[in-house]
């Protein structure tokens, strides 16, 4: 692949996670669907936060987690995302830049506060996410530096950005800039509920703009409205250039045309918190891809990163991923 100053440019919702242990009763009491991501307003965020148990605050956001993972492998990354010039915004910027990821998007000086995601982790390690997008909704085409896009081998975005019209336009501008520069683009489907909201738009992207598609079993079945993973796999084979599909403990499957690579999950002593598993899988895969690794090896690196992050609370690596390969 043609060399570039950056391996991957990530564009995503800049969010600070608040993670707390919970139980099914709390989810039921508040009408929450286990394992889902729901968008909430500021009042709902305050209500849930008041009812949650003790939590930890850590910079997150799906794409931000992926970029931190790429840096942990030793990759070169940059990030575009919107925060407010408030305390959480400073925390997010500091945490991401401390990993080695370039982050120069100007902070908003007015409007909603920096986004936060209230993550409830039940004893079965499932995470239920409630996201107040806040300042993220201010991300727009004006935040896209086309020269920065051209300086990255791959531009990677999260499907969650489709929930904000201006952010969607920002992504489309970035995709066009990447194409014009001869670079590649990638998207993660993010969440099956997100897929249901934007199915036709996502399928159009997969057919016409995207080079690498990421999704889990539920998301890819939702995208093609089929009952089995095997059906979804064959449908994706007809539309996606490369699709990397995760299946939890069953590992992952990567397809490219008629090629199929089934890669087992990396061993993990104990699953503590599944938050960030897909984000870190994408990190390992994209690190491998931008360093010229075969697709099966890219998937193996993704599995290693996912296994590390689910072994502890929090969606970013606690130990350098480059030391695990």
Automatic annotation (TrEMBL):
Keywords (A to Z) from UniProt: Kinase, Transferase
Superkingdom to which the source organism belongs: Bacteria
Annotated Carbohydrate kinase PfkB domain residues: 59-317
Keyword Nucleotidyltransferase: no
One Pfam match: PfkB
GO molecular function: kinase activity
Record's keyword annotation contains Kinase: yes
Family in the record: Belongs to the carbohydrate kinase PfkB family.
Protein name listed in UniProt: Adenosine kinase
Origin organism lineage: Bacteria, Pseudomonadati, Pseudomonadota, Alphaproteobacteria, Hyphomicrobiales
């Amino acid at each position: 692949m043609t060399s570039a100053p950056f391996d991957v440019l990530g564009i995503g919702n800049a969010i600070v996670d608040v993670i707390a242990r919970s139980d099914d009763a709390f989810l039921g009491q508040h009408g929450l669907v286990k394992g889902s991501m729901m968008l909430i307003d500021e009042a709902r965020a305050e209500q849930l936060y008041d009812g949650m148990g003790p939590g930890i605050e850590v910079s997150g956001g799906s794409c931000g987690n992926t970029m931190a993972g790429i840096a942990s492998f030793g990759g070169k990354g940059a990030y575009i995302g919107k925060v407010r010039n408030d305390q959480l915004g400073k925390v997010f910027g500091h945490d991401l830049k401390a990993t080695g990821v370039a982050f120069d998007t100007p902070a908003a000086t007015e409007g909603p506060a920096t986004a936060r995601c209230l993550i409830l982790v039940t004893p079965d390690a499932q995470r239920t996410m409630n996201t107040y997008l806040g300042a993220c909704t201010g991300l727009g085409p004006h935040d896209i530096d086309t020269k920065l896009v051209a300086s990255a081998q791959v531009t990677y975005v999260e499907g969650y950005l489709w929930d904000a019209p201006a952010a969607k336009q920002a992504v489309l501008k970035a995709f066009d800039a990447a194409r014009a520069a001869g670079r590649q683009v990638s998207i993660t489907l993010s969440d099956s509920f997100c897929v249901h909201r934007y199915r036709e738009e996502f399928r159009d992207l997969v057919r016409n703009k995207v080079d690498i598609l990421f999704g889990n079993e539920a998301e890819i079945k939702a995208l093609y409205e089929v009952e089995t993973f095997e059906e979804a796999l064959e449908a994706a084979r007809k539309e996606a250039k490369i699709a990397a599909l995760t299946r939890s403990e069953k590992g992952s499957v990567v397809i490219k045309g008629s090629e199929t690579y089934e890669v087992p999950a990396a061993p993990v002593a104990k699953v503590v918190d599944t938050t960030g598993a897909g984000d870190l899988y994408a990190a390992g895969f994209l690190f491998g891809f931008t360093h010229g690794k075969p697709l099966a090896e890219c998937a193996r690196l993704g599995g290693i990163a996912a296994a590390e992050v689910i072994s502890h609370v929090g969606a970013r690596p606690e130990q350098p991923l480059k030391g695990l390969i």
